[in-house]
Amino acid sequence: MIKSNREYRALNIEKREQSAEQDAEPDYKVRGYASTFEPYVLFTDEEGTEYKEQITPEAFNEADLSDVIFLYNHEGMVYARQKNGTLNISVDEKGLHIEADLSSTQASRDLYDSIQKGLIDKMSFAFVTSEDEYDRKTHTRTISRIGKVYDVSAVSIPANPDTDIEIISARSYFDGEIEKERAERLEAEKRLKIAKLKFEFM
Asked: Which helix (H) or strand (E) holds 132?
């Protein structure tokens, strides 16, 4: 069940490549970045305006990263977790990096197999923002502090229904700002029209 106060972002997930010297038996490791520090376009509205987001490198400094779990589509059984050492999370110069060992159960090995075959190639993470700001000129939201990361999740995009939920969740922050900008633009156009009418009757 998607939590209404949590935000979700989708990125790539990849299997860990094994060297030629290793056995053909898979090690069931996957890795990826749950977050990167480069600005990215979240969506483009019907007028062609790009709305962007950037998570700063400092955003994770005080974030609660305790016992993050690895899920599928943000729900159901736990496939890996920090508490038992099957999930490692670290912040590096690129972003929030994860590596998960999916060898614990048959279900987790089946998930690895789906990733290995390219059936699942995206990852999303659930988090709560505690500090951010919005630049109306560039239509960019900057997240400078994340309160907690709840889970990282393998997601099937575009096949799974959570895709729409993730997109809506990502856009929901901007909906209020978009409405404000449009209202202000309409008000400015109205004042300009009134001023022109007054000038014409002078």
From this structure: strand 122-135
Radius of gyration, CA atoms only, the chain = 21
Euclidean distance between CA atoms 156 and 145, whole angstroms: 28
Q: CA geometry: angle at 6 spanning 91 and 87, to 5°?
A: 40
In the chain, domain spans? 7-175
Q: Do the Cβ atoms of 170 and 84 come closer than 8 Å? A: no
Please write the tens of the pLDDT for every residue from 37-96. 888 888 888 889 998 889 999 999 999 999 899 999 888 999 999 999 999 999 999 888
- pLDDT tens per residue across span 139-162: 999 999 999 999 988 887 533 233
- Measured CA to CA, the distance from residue 109 to residue 3 in angstroms comes to 27
Letter for the amino acid at 47?
Answer: E
